[in-house]
Amino acid sequence: MAINRSTVGIAGVGAISAAGNGAAATLDTFRSGRPNPASTLPFESSIDAPTFQVSAELPELAGHYNASRSLRLTIAALTEAIEASGLNELVGCTERVGVCLGTTVASQLNNVAFYDAYRTTGRPPLEPVYDYLHANLAHAVGDILTLHGPRMTVVNACSSGADAIGIAASWIRNGLCDLAIAGGADELNRVALAGFWSLGVMSQQPCTPFDRDRAGLNLGEGAGVVILESHAHAAKRGAKLAFEIAGFGNACDAHHLTAPHPEGRGLDAAVRAAMKQANVAPEQVAFINAHGTATLDNDRAEAKVFDRLFTGGVKFLSTKGYTGHTLGAAGGLEAIFTLLGLREGWIPASVGFQNKPDDLAAAPISARTEIAGEYALSTSLAFGGNNAAVLIRRLA
Amino acid sequence: MTLPTVSILGAGAITPIGRDLPKIAARLHAKSGRIEADDAPPAPSTLEEPNSNLPLPSGERAGVRGETSDTDPHISPTDSENLPPLPTSPLREERQQLPVDDATITDAVLGKWLRRADRYTKMAVLAAADAWEAAKPALADVPLERIGLIVATGFGPHGRGFKFLDGVLDCGDSAALPTDFSHSVHGAPAGYITEILGLRGPSLSIADFVCGFEQAVQLAQCWLAEGGCDRVLVGAVEELGQVLLHCAGRMLNYDQRITPSEGAAFFMLGPAEASGAIATLTTAEVPGKVDLVLLDQPVVGLATPHLQPSETEVHWSFNASFGHHPGTAAFQILGGLLAMRPPIAIDNVATFRPSCDPAAATLLLRKITSSPTAGV
Q1: Which residues, numbered 24 to 83 in chain A, qualify as contacts with chain B under a Cβ-Cβ cut-off of 8 Å?
Q2: What is the pLDDT of residues A208-267, one digit of tens each?
Q3: Are A154 and A101 in contact (CB under 8 A)?
Q4: Is residue A99 less than 8 Å (CB to CB) from chain B?
Q5: Structure ipTM
Q6: Which helix (H) or strand (E) holds A391?
Q7: What is the distance in angstroms between the Cα of A92 and the nearest Cα belonging to chain B?
């Protein structure tokens, strides 16, 4: 069967993370090259590790149960994306508008206090359960905006946000909707912190992706939301879209529950699929916003794939040094950072990288770098061997 | 917008009434899917009986009523007053449930792969492996890179998640077990399934309390229509656990005929024209004539005029055999598929979930008349 190469436009983006509340503030942080990890946790824990926290005040969502922080982060990013898109009439509109969002924390009843009460009293308060039952990210956003159209919450671990963008683009190509809200969100959470600590993949220092002395990841929080739009719909409203999802690939390692394939088998396939969908050659890719978690295995596998597929070399960076690993939000945020790089004509230093290790086949940029070109990639790797690649194109 | 119809090439399931599909079919047909223990309370549904006159109010709100202290704090008294009074039940917190028997989720061949897995992941893996095996003749020429996977769930592996929390509470944040954490994420079954079956196409896990399976089928239709995959293994999995059962006992009402259950059901999907197909499946808004409408009893009201009933149409439910959970639609489709075998031998089945997006609210299953249903 022939691959459908029709593209889907990007009408607006919104990003909130420790790097900034909004695209402008994020770019200021990228320009400065100075991330700001927090040394204290927003909850009680015996774990001592830096995290990347959102300091901005988040929207209150009155009447929507006790809205999770992940949902409030989503709404903050979505508000920026709607404003940037010029689609202010989106709220309550009668058109079919899809909502596809990725998350990890918001999909689980990870409430230590609730479970502690269950264990000790046998009759915990149920309010956290009601809140959880109304916290499905896609449904909550769709309900808040009273949208009609397909909804899906992706729980593909750390590639969730990227996968959500690929799915929403597929919905539009298949005529299920003309507009879609897509991306991901996740909040800092004590259980996730304990989990990644238990796996031995967390650093007690600010993370240093792709560096010789990299010692693991830092957790972060945030949301990255894009509004996708069919070109036909954009033309109908007289909007000139500046970016599009040119290609998307998702492929599985079939290797291990938590470790990537050592040769990056699935990532290789995902990147190839994204470029094939767009009919783009490796030399047309201006840069890659890598997953770059700063774990030994992830960075090694990614560098191998970049070296193998982009034989002439390719500029790449990790933005995890500015945001930490935002889990389900990462794919959404980093697709937006990729778009911003294409728009601005420069990408920030891969903060934390200083020395190329012997075990890496390629090295990221170490300083702010000018870039030119139409296309750029964002890659995501995840538990379960999931890999996703989003190829973004600058149209104007 | 109607997506292209896809075909079912094979099915596999772990259910409260077993794993072997011919035996499950026989039990459904013999109306022996009820809980059989002599001391069990009467099944709370009208299982295996025509379901055309249920007296319960329609709507999602039905699932959140209860005693004053345990009601949803966000539902106003006015809302509650509008609902008819419920009879009390001594079984409120001793909810009947339909668990999968432990013996059903043991497997001599796959056991070595699953030694660290919990029952949630085991159920998903075994059902997916059975669907794979059933569809094997139709997979012979399909590269593993061209086979996708979509796993739908509502609550995910909450049993393992709470086990990890036990570790956090008992041993401290820095001393909980890593295997409990890695198996507590929703994507754990997908990781196992792709590794064991060697699938290297797109792999996706989705979470939805209402219609995850319908969403998964709809996305599989997109993937197949676009040519991104040649086959997609689609399924739903849910597990019972003491914590959520406790919550359900306080939040739901036994008399609303909800029987919490668990299980996994997977289907290998391909293009409509794929050889070896046993039935076609599609999401639809206006499906046309059907012989059998499968409904979830908690969302009654039977508002299905869009289904254009044929003269022989029957409203039915397999809920008392398979129980209720967010992936119920997958089990209704399984039951429908099995009902296509003799002696019932119906041709057209629809499931209807009114709270879904309309485009995916109805799943339409149609028998391929030339098929011997060998892949079931």
Answers
A1: 45-47, 63, 65
A2: 999 999 999 999 999 999 999 999 999 999 999 999 999 999 999 999 998 999 999 999
A3: yes
A4: no
A5: 0.97
A6: strand A386-394
A7: 15
